Amino acid sequence: MSDSSGTRKTVNSFDVAKLAGVSRSAVSRTFTDGASVSRETREKVIAAAGQLGYRVNVLARSLHKQKSDLVGVVAADLDNPFRAEQIDLLSKGLLVRGLRPILLRGEPSADVADLIGSLLQYSVAGVIVTSDTPPEEICMECLENGVPLVVVNKRDTGAPVDRVVTAFEDGGRLAFEHLVASGCRKLAVVTPESSSYSINGRALAFEQAANNNGIPVVRIAWGSQSYEGGLEAAAFVNRIRSEIDGVFCTADYLALGVLDGLRHDHGVAIPEDIQVIGYDDIPQAAWKAYDLTTLAQSRKVLCEATLELLMQRLENPDLPQQVRVCSVSLKKRGTTRAVS
C-alpha cells in the first residue's frame, strides 16, 4: 500500500479489519496463538493481511504485554567451529520450543553486563550466555525482573542462576592418561594467553594429573584460542622438541594450527616425533587431514541441557538453582599412537 507520493504506507490492524470486513479484535485473535476465532473470519483476515502485506509487530505486542517469546543468546568466538555449531543448535532448539533467538556477539571488547542489560529492554523471556561470565549484579537484575538466565561453561557467578558445564576436570585427566598410556613421558600443554574458565580448567586438570604422577609439564600459553594461535604456538613447540614427546591442546581449534605448523612448517612427524591430543571434537578433528585424537563434549547434549534448564525455569521460577554437568569421552585417532 502506497500513498500519493509513492511512499509505502505502514499497514496496521485497522487496515486489515476494514478490508476483511471484521472487527479489529478479530484481527488480533487471528494472530494470537490459542485465541478463539471462526474459520470463516480467520480466512478473511489472512486473505486481507496477505493482500496488504501486513505482518504482526511482535516486538510491540511483547512490550505491551511486558513479556515476549524472545530469548537472548550472548556468544563470542563465532569463527570457532565448536561455538558456531553450539549457537546453531541453541537457535534451532529455541524455535522448536516456540521461542525466538536474538543473538548478541559478546566479543572481548564488549561488556557482557551491558549486552544483557540491552536485552532486558526488549522484555526477553530469558537469556543464555556462552561468552564471558556475567557479573553478579546483572545476574541479580535478571532474577529480580523474572528473566531466567542460564550460563554455559562458566564459573559460579555468585548469583543463584542455572549453569551447564562439561566435566573438564575429567577431560584434562583423560588427556594425560591417554598420552602416558601411548608412551609419552615429557609433556606440554598448549593454551591461549587469555583463557576462559573452562579452558583454564582443562589445563589445570591436566597439570594436576601429571604432577600427581611425577611427570613434568611445560605450559605454553600463546596467542588466542584460534587456528592462528595454534600455528604460532607450533613454532615454540618445535624449539623445545627435545624436551617434550606429548602435547595437550586445550581446544581443537588450537590443535589444528599446532598440527599444521609442526607438520608443514617444521617437518615434525605426528605421532612419530610428537603425539598430540585436543579437546572438543569439532567436525574438522575427524577430517583425514587431521585425524585428531581428542576429548569429545557433545554440543547436542550441552544444548539440550541448557534449553531444558531454561524451560524448567520459565515454567517454575521458584526452583532452586541447578547445575548440570555433561560428561566427556575420549576419541582415539591418528595423532597419538595406538595403545596395545
Characterise this structure.
By secondary structure, the chain is an alpha/beta fold. It has three domains: 13-56, no CATH class; 66-166 and 299-327, Response regulator (Rossmann fold, 3-Layer(aba) Sandwich), CATH 3.40.50.2300; 168-296, 3-Layer(aba) Sandwich (Rossmann fold). Helix content is 43%, strand content 16%. The protein has helices at residues 13-20, 24-30, 39-52, 58-65, 81-96, 112-120, 136-144, 168-181, 197-212, 227-239, 252-266, 299-315; strands at 70-75, 100-105, 126-129, 149-152, 162-166, 187-191, 217-221, 246-249, 275-280, 293-296, 323-326, 329-331. A six-stranded parallel sheet has the order 2-1-3-4-5-11, sandwiched between helices. Strands 7-6-8-9-10-12 form a six-stranded mixed sheet, sandwiched between helices. Strand 8 (246-249), helix 11 and strand 9 (275-280) form a beta-alpha-beta unit. Helix 5 (81-96) packs parallel to helix 12 (299-315) and helix 10 (227-239) packs across helix 11 (252-266). The longest helix is centred in the last third of the chain and has 17 residues, at 299-315. The N and C termini lie far apart (75 Å).
